[in-house]
Design brief:
mainly alpha, globular
């Protein structure tokens, strides 16, 4: 079964895109995606194939998540998203979330996190609040689990629930990695779309402490005067 899955992905791939993907996902020496391998497959094509395999044995999804091929890992996560989406049973959903969290380190690039975390962990927490789990992930030593924590809250922000995002954003003020700076700024910007005053209150309190990248992402949709105001405080 897994050979069929992987073969379908390979047939849908475009090898001419491999070099582009390797550059885009920072696979060079010393970069966060160092050594990752690609077959040149677009996300829409990957999702189309992954949906066919959402109900396979979880061990097969696990095998995909552990693959050295980036798009195979992504396909495993996309199948898991579809599996969660199809499930109507809370206990089954919880087991999917538990599995996802234990395999989160295999989501070792930003796209793998961003295309899975809001739709599995975020959706589950929307109905089953669990700040402790988000805190546990955010305090992890693993960059990808830390990103999963903040990006999962996108689902909450879209439903006007900002507490978890604001708490994690404050915690990440001193985080050293640009991928966390970008994610934090992005999520703060999403809060601003819903309630600009909450964003402004956060920025007035913390903008001088925020990494410049996080701040730039957060203020992107503000009017020019406000953007200038916060940038000049840095």
């Amino acid at each position: 079964m897994i050979k069929n899955w992987q073969e379908e992905l390979r047939k849908a791939a475009n090898p001419e895109k491999i070099k582009i993907f390797m550059s885009f996902f920072k696979t060079g020496k010393g970069e966060y995606g160092e050594g990752d391998k690609f077959i040149g497959l677009s996300v829409p094509e990957n999702r189309r194939v992954a949906k066919k395999y959402f109900d396979v044995e979880i061990s097969l999804i696990d095998e995909m998540l552990k693959s050295e091929i980036h798009e195979f890992r992504l396909s495993g996560f996309l199948a898991l998203v579809e599996r969660f989406k199809k499930s109507k049973d809370t206990e089954e959903q919880k087991s999917i979330v538990d599995f996802y969290v234990t395999r989160g380190t295999f989501a070792n690039n930003w796209d793998l996190v961003d295309l899975s975390a809001p739709y599995i962990l975020g959706t589950f927490i929307l109905s089953n609040p669990n700040p402790a789990l988000l805190d546990q992930l955010s305090f992890s030593d693993n960059l990808w689990l830390q990103r999963i924590a903040i990006v999962s809250t996108l689902t909450l922000v879209r439903k006007n629930r900002f507490e978890d995002t604001l708490r994690l954003s404050e915690r990440y003020l001193t985080h050293p990695h640009p991928l966390i700076h970008k994610a934090t700024g992005w999520l703060l910007r999403e809060i601003g779309k819903k309630d600009e005053q909450i964003l402004l209150d956060f920025l007035e309190k913390f903008s001088t402490k925020m990494p410049r990248t996080a701040l730039r992402y957060a203020i992107e949709r503000l009017n020019p005067d406000l953007r200038q105001h916060f940038m000049q405080r840095k």
